[in-house]
């Protein structure tokens, strides 16, 4: 018997390390919302834009209006709304890292666009304090919070703070999560998933309310003409779940990222897939009007 030993595989000179030279830095967008996925060919940035425009479209924004965007992330929603509707946008975010990044991105915009923006660091439940940093008037025609109000501790405090900074008959519009009226969270499996979901989404249990309770909180804070527009879960949670799976597959194919990135995408896909297939949380666009004095 003759044993043949293959020659050692020669070490590649370059490999694919030069992929770093081909990355577009910084990325053109830093979106971070669930998105509105009209079909499976929709890319992440487009889905995020569609969700923002679906909310902004409820407001009736006119050129020159003043809008407050609370929980704006890294600035993409502020940039989009101010440019699309030719309005003045003030943004507030509680995350210092995202605020610094959004400021750098804003500084890189043309002066004509930059002059429409004011990006502040502060809390959604302490708008009075956050808006003291702004030299302009702190009363707005519109206030929005897109895919972030369920984080606020508490959401009711945000409603009241927002009401204090809206003009009479000004509008509040949000993309938020509302508990289904017929939700069944009595089984051990559903209760366990609820706890995991709340931990993963940083969602205070007190913010898990149905539409009737949500409406009551808005009315108590001084809003009327309240509207709820339910979105198909598959076009929000389902689309995001499928996108996470695609990203995981592409990262594995191109040998990008590490095990933590893969775990993040796997967990995200699982949680949003479950939300798409169970009647637990309803993705919803909510519009309300600030009641004038005496209403």
TrEMBL record:
GO terms for molecular function: phosphoethanolamine N-methyltransferase activity. Pathway: Lipid metabolism; Phospholipid metabolism; phosphatidylcholine biosynthesis. Pfam families: CMAS (PF02353). Keywords: Methyltransferase, Transferase. InterPro entries: SAM-dependent_MTases_sf. GO terms for biological process: methylation. It catalyses: N-methylethanolamine phosphate + S-adenosyl-L-methionine = N,N-dimethylethanolamine phosphate + S-adenosyl-L-homocysteine + H(+); N,N-dimethylethanolamine phosphate + S-adenosyl-L-methionine = phosphocholine + S-adenosyl-L-homocysteine + H(+). CDD domains: AdoMet_MTases (cd02440). Its EC number is 2.1.1.103. This is phosphoethanolamine N-methyltransferase. It comes from Absidia glauca (Pin mould).
